[in-house]
Amino acid sequence: ERFLQYVKIGSSANPNTLDYPSSRGQWLLGEVLVKQLKSFGIEDAQQDVHGLVWGTIPSTCAGPVPTILLNAHLDTSPEAPGDHCKPEVIENYAGGDIPLANGELIQVAHTPELMQLHGKTLVVTDGRTLLGGDDKAGVAAIMEVSNYLMEHPEIPHGPIRILFTCDEEIGRGTRFFDLKTAGAIAGYTLDGGGSGTIDVETFSGDLATVKFLGHNTHPSVGRGKMVNALKAAAEFVAALPSDQLSPETTCGREGFLHPYVFHGSVSEATVQILLRDFETPKLAEYASLLESMAKDQMQRQPRLTIQVHAEHQYRNLGDKLREFPPAADLAEKAFLKLGRTCKRDAIRGGSDGSLMSHLGLPTPNLSVGQYNIHSTKEFACLDEMVQAVEHAVVLAELWSEYGRA
After folding, report:
1. I need a surface site. Which of 6, 34, 136, 282 has the fewest CB within 10 A?
2. Considering the entire predicted model, what is its pTM?
3. 168 in active site
4. Domain extent at residue 299
5. Are residues 37 and 147 both part of a single domain?
6. Phi and psi for 72 in degrees, rounded to 5?
7. Count of alpha carbons within 13 Å of 56, Cβ hemisphere only?
8. Which of 75, 134, 167, 352 is labelled catalytic?
């Protein structure tokens, strides 16, 4: 019920503002969570001046044991509509394509994971919006962990810090994250797809903003005078690698350049391009490629100005996890204690854990039943969300054993 409540609160991130959080919905969702955390008995639950939600599940152990942190993000992707979500619950999924209210289908041919979900409870939308399971599935799971542990003080665990961040989807999730406030030895983002996966690597990511400065005139007298920035930007995007280094043609550990925002006018246009690779030094190579392309195009069009600026977004969390093996080792041990198989994986994306890890808090990412994220065909698996809750509870117990040892 909490998950269905959360997805109905529109909280899309807005990349076109510098406000933090970038949307009112994130504030509103955070306010709801604080009230619920307090109702569980978490007395220090609060929403800080930046919209981050903090709280602590108190230790049930007599002696000192390590503090861990559980994190999910409040925002949803701006790449598809997020407001007015109308979730629909499918109990005992019988297999086959899933018809949505708008006439679209979630097709098994395009989502083969459905073949492993027969008999499960799924949550879909009407096909007009995101579901927001990325990452409200994680939010709901952490809230359930909080409620369960507060109701069961007989379960041994150390202090567990709860943190809900904002604007993860636009690379700003940890802008106001404070390591001292977190006070934890390790963290876990619940922001992964499916079940049984521990993401121990992420992409490293930068954002390239390419600005095109042209010259506008009335089109009737444009000959020899007009320089159309929109056309120049389109030419630039068309020249990007298409048979390699693009999301459409890469997989596994291959990186890419992904133009995903294009706007402007005759006089000025902007293209934003995501630079992604597991090997951080390659990001500089991708930025150099863009600068070389800009230089070549300006030589062909001397009255055109192209400016390329690349900014840091996040780095591969594996670089830091290798320095503190227990963060991933205990997550794996928790799956085994539950009698479940698991795998360590590298995620072709990023997470707030990427940034937290490089700030000094090793933070792998855990599965929480998300599918088809950033799409109007997104859905979530309730059974796998429950499994994520069970895993987090056992993980907390293992950390208390680790501390006593």
Report:
1. 282
2. 0.87
3. yes
4. 204-313
5. yes
6. -145, 165
7. 12
8. 75
